[in-house]
Amino acid sequence: MFIIVRHGNTFEAGELPRRIGSRTDLPLTAQGREQGQALGRHFAAQGIRFARAFVSPLLRTRQTADAILAHQPAPAARAETAGFLREIDHGPDENEAEDTILARIGKDALAAWDTRAIPPPGWQVDPEARLSAWRRLFAGETDAGGPVLLVTSNGAARFALLADRALAEGARAASTLKLPTGGYGVIGQGEAGALELQGWGIRP
């Protein structure tokens, strides 16, 4: 089982949100830290013990992973940095407000990103490299022997759903690839060992 978590909030209540990616390394807010704690309590209450944990290099994801793993029974898995989980680079739209971005690229381009992971002009993503990394993970190159925790960002998480045909079909039914802050998705095994999307956009 793979549990894919999006980091907690990085903007304070009332603060204008911006598109932050790989070049903007913000910490979690107090609410974001509490979201991480809530996720940790949630998984522990379900009896989920992570065999391995992977995290992007960014501070906000590492803080979220640490909060989750703090609720695991000892000895808990240690968070391992994985480059393919790093958030994308929004190019000219990095650290810009949504209205500014929409004025530059338009609603259709943003919708294509949220539903099909087609990068808007100027965004630096390398979809094939990201898809390949998820496929290697799902193929068992990371032999965990139990549930795997992956803590990442919204732009990176969506490629998990596109790395497998069955997962992509589940994503189409959900009509969005986005994960909310402090939310998670679950990818498990269905019949004959096939990957199965068991939940997406879940918040404790």
Automatic annotation (TrEMBL):
GO molecular function list: phosphatase activity
CDD domains: HP_PGM_like
InterPro entries noted in UniProt: His_Pase_superF_clade-1, His_PPase_superfam, PGM_Phosphatase
Protein name: Phosphoglycerate mutase family protein
Pfam families associated with the record: His_Phos_1
GO cellular component, one term: cytoplasm
Tree of life domain: Bacteria
Coiled coil: none
Biological source species: Croceicoccus marinus
